[in-house]
Amino acid sequence: MNTYLKKAALIIVLISGASFLTYHTYDGMTDDNFQMVFNEKYGIYALSLPEDITFAEEEIPFDDPEIYERFDRELLVNTYWQSQTMLFYKRSNRYFKIIEPILKKNGVPDDFKYLSLVESGLTNVVSPAGATGFWQIMEATGKGYGLEINKEIDERYHLIKSTEAACKYLLEAKAELGTWTLAAASYNMGITGIKKQLERQEAQGYYGLTLNSETSRYVFRILAAKEIMSNPIKYGFHFREKDLYQPIPTYTVKVDSSVTNFGKFAHKLGINYRILKYHNPWLRYDYLPNKAGKTYEIEIPKEGYFSLVDSNPMEIEVILDSTASDTIKAISDSL
Question: CATH top-level class for 65-242?
Answer without folding.
Answer: mainly alpha
